[in-house]
């Protein structure tokens, strides 16, 4: 596949090319699902493009499993070769079927390997390559030797009048070029176009050679000299259609006599640093030449940027026209990036406004790769940005890092930015935004105490209190932080305050969206409190409002999927498995249509939980495996959930070693991703199975690690679970006094967390008490009552005392 050919840059045609070639190599292989999917796409063009791409990706991945098995059996690999990677290096997403995939896509076929050739070093900060250093083996091509230099010049000289170089001339040229192919090619161009002779070249001092040689481009015949300069400034892409547009508008540029398209194409193709695609009008300029031409040709010729600004305006007009034709998709994104570059070149303030518009939109629409590409484009102008503009840019980068599931890096960046704000008013919008983003990072890192502290600071600011939209956002995040800590009354208070504000918003539709989102938060509070009817009523209203907003074009369909997930969870808690399963499947369909892969992974995990609830462990395992595959490089949280869920299934099927392996992997990944809550939860899972296997040392270590994390994060439910397991461990060892001390602590935490969990804890303790020998029951019951009084909970939570007294009364009789 040669990316210089425009056809090879079409993601659908590229996938078809892989399939067609594979059929030639494997005659017995029938890509049934992919063939059906591509035919459906070609006959029904009304299917959304994102949905099509996702369906085709799934179909091809499924069909390739047979090829993968054959390669495994024959101990072979399939090698895909991609040439001219530099053409797509800024936006590799244009050639992969799914937006969530990275280039190169091997379609989950482990025996597919890739060889790619490109002129430029990989940018490890690019979203396509971030964190993938270990996947790539780089093989650099060294500069030409003296012999190769002589052979290249000899082979590409077209003018027979040029004398053959003698040994000294060759040595002189080799010293001046250092074997750099770009300069050796320029030597050939200069000789073929009679710009210099070999004698002229060897007389140029070594330290002046690069500049003097490159500047000869200005001496090319008109309009070729100008066209090469155009290509260097236009930068992103260049073809004859764009050239004709420039020539029709460039009134101030001294172009000279125009050539027809065929003559232009022929002369451009003869220059060593320009390539032309075999089946299109596209040309590409060597990246290194772009830098050299800017320094040695444009700067002396256009010191005040007057000519280049006119050129930028012309190119912008062309890109704007093209974006109107390309309403969606990666091609439109390429044009937007081109417009951004030239707007920044013309007026950096105007360019930054344009950047902010599309950057915020990309974040809102979950177009994370596109947002990263926009940010990279602005970074090229960093040297001319003011300090304030650089700070805003870094704040945007922190927001992007969060959405890239890199909250720890985002928090580090925000901390650095905050440390440099001594001279900035702590009530300024910039400082408040820093604090808000810091709170969101703490939420993603499961540091709910710190998150709540950030949002409380924000809520105390008068400027935020006057901004209703901002206030609602802060209240929603505060509610979520307290919800995760199990402090339901506080969570409910903030959610309801947000609802009151949303009702007063001037924009009715926006207020209703906030209202619906907050209702889902309230629904989750009631669900965790065991108040299922209250939870169900709230989420049903929210679901209806999200549907209405979608029909009116005020909201995306993803919000409907989110309310369906919550609705399904409420049904699941009420053991209405059929309705829960239906909700999860509807949400899955929505996420699939929207190509929202994080949602797809969430739906898979929910469907697995539903199947576990009815004892269908094999089906549940299949869903969790799907979730694991869907979330592996996309959403660590859902990936870790799938690992823990698979571990529980293995535990129930008595495959203890496999369960331990899954729980340990979940611990490692949650630590790497700074997911503290999930790390503590995974340690608890490991401790539970270790207790069953009587692996004392492992169980004690896991519980100790879980306790440290849960105490720091004030995770009440997990602290209660730790105490329960400690109690079970000592109970099994017949150490009843210590066991029931832990059981009373278990009840203590659950009383603070959740009435439903509290009542379940009381039942568990009374059941265990009643199973003891008679002489133990009285002493332990009295110990439990004394503990409860020491907590000061006898008035607010009397059920515990009543249960213990009933057991004592039974013993007295």
UniProtKB/TrEMBL annotation:
InterPro entries: TPR-like_helical_dom_sf, TPR_rpt. It comes from the Bacteria. PROSITE patterns: TPR. TPR repeats lie at residues 472-505, 640-673. Keywords: Repeat, TPR repeat. Coiled coil: none annotated. This is MalT-like TPR region domain-containing protein. It comes from Reticulibacter mediterranei. The lineage of its organism: Bacteria, Bacillati, Chloroflexota, Ktedonobacteria, Ktedonobacterales.
């Amino acid at each position: 596949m040669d990316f210089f050919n425009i056809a090879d840059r079409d993601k659908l045609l590229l996938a078809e090319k892989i399939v067609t070639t594979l059929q030639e190599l494997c005659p017995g292989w029938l890509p049934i699902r992919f063939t059906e999917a591509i035919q459906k796409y070609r006959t029904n063009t009304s299917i959304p493009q994102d949905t099509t791409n996702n369906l085709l990706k799934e179909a091809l991945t499924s069909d390739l499993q047979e090829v993968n098995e054959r390669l495994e059996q024959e101990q072979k690999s399939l090698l895909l070769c991609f040439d001219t990677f530099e053409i797509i290096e800024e936006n590799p997403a244009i050639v992969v079927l799914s937006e969530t995939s990275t280039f190169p896509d091997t379609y989950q076929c482990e025996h597919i390997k890739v060889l790619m050739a490109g002129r430029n070093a990989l940018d490890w900060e690019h979203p396509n390559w971030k964190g993938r250093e270990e996947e790539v083996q780089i093989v650099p091509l060294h500069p030409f030797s003296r012999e190769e230099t002589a052979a290249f010049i000899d082979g590409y000289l077209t003018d027979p009048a040029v004398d053959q170089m003698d040994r000294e001339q060759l040595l002189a040229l080799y010293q001046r070029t250092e074997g750099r192919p770009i300069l050796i090619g320029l030597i050939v161009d200069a000789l073929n176009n009679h710009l210099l002779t070999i004698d002229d070249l060897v007389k140029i001092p070594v330290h002046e050679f690069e500049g003097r040689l490159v500047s000869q481009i200005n001496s090319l015949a008109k309009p070729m000299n100008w066209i090469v300069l155009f290509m260097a400034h236009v930068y992103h892409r260049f073809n004859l259609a764009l050239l004709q547009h420039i020539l029709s508008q460039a009134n101030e540029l001294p172009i000279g006599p125009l050539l027809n398209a065929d003559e232009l194409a022929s002369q451009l193709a003869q220059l060593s640093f320009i390539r032309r695609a075999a089946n299109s009008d596209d040309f590409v300029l060597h990246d290194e030449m772009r830098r050299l031409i800017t320094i040695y040709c444009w700067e002396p010729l256009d010191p005040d940027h007057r000519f280049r600004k006119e050129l930028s305006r012309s190119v912008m007009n062309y890109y704007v026209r093209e974006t109107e034709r390309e309403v969606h998709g990666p091609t439109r994104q390429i044009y937007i990036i081109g417009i951004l570059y030239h707007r920044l070149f013309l007026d950096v303030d105007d360019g930054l406004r344009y950047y902010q518009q599309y950057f915020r939109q990309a974040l809102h629409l979950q177009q994370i790769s596109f947002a990263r590409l926009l940010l990279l484009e602005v970074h090229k102008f960093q040297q001319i940005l003011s300090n304030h503009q650089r700070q805003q840019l870094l704040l945007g980068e922190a927001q992007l890092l969060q959405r890239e599931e890199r909250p720890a890096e985002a928090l580090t960046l925000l901390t650095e930015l905050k440390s440099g704000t001594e001279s900035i008013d702590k009530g300024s919008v910039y400082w408040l935004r820093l604090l808000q983003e810091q709170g969101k990072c703490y939420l993603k890192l499961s540091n709910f105490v710190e998150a709540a502290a950030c949002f409380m600071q924000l809520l105390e600011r008068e400027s935020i209190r006057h901004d209703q939209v901002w206030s609602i956002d802060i209240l929603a995040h505060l509610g979520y932080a307290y919800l995760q800590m199990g402090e339901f009354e506080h969570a409910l208070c903030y959610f309801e305050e947000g609802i009151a504000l949303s009702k007063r918003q001037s924009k009715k539709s926006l207020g209703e969206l906030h209202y619906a989102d907050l209702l889902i938060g309230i629904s989750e509070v009631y669900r965790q409190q065991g108040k299922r009817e209250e939870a169900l009523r709230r989420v049903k209203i929210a679901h209806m409002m999200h549907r209405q907003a979608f029909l009116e074009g005020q909201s995306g369909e993803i919000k409907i999927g989110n309310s369906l997930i919550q609705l399904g969870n409420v049904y699941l808690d009420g053991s209405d498995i059929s309705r829960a399963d239906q909700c999860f499947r509807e949400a899955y369909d929505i996420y699939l249509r929207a190509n929202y892969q994080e949602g797809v992974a969430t739906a898979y995990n929910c469907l697995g939980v539903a199947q576990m609830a009815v004892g269908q462990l094999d089906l549940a395992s299949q869903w969790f495996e799907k979730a694991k595959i869907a979330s592996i490089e996309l959403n660590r949280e859902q990936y870790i959930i799938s690992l823990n869920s698979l571990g529980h299934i293995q535990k129930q099927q008595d495959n203890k070693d496999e369960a331990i392996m899954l729980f340990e992997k979940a611990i490692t990944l949650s630590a790497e991703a700074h997911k503290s809550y999930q790390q503590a939860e995974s340690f608890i899972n490991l401790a539970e199975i270790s207790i069953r296997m009587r692996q004392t040392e492992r169980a004690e270590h896991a519980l100790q690690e879980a306790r440290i994390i849960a105490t720091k994060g004030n995770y009440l439910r997990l602290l209660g679970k730790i105490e329960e397991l400690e109690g079970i461990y000592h109970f099994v060892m017949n150490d009843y006094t210590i066991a029931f001390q832990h059981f009373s602590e278990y009840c203590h935490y659950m009383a603070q967390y959740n009435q439903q969990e509290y009542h379940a804890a009381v039942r568990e303790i009374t059941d265990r008490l009643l199973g003891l020998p008679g002489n133990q029951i009285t002493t332990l019951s009295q110990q439990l009552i004394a503990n409860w009084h020491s907590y000061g909970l006898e008035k607010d939570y009397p059920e515990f005392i009543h249960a213990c007294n009933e057991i004592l009364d039974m013993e007295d009789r």
